[in-house]
Amino acid sequence: MGAFRLGSQVQYLIAPAGLTALGVTTGGWGWLPTAAIFVLVAAAIVPAVAWAGRTPRLGSQAPEPTRTSIP
Fold this sequence. Notes:
With 71 residues, this protein is an all-alpha fold. It has two helices and no strands.
């Protein structure tokens, strides 16, 4: 189990150093791809949260379908 969790710990260790190194060692242009990643994630989170709000949870009852009367 410890070896399984080692991968996520390495991510937490390397990602900040890697992003900083990308921005600093490239003369500054490396911050642009980093900023683009954050902008894309920020744009994608709104539809993802809306989808999660519409998705029923396990163990909850399904909503009753709304019925309209036909004249």
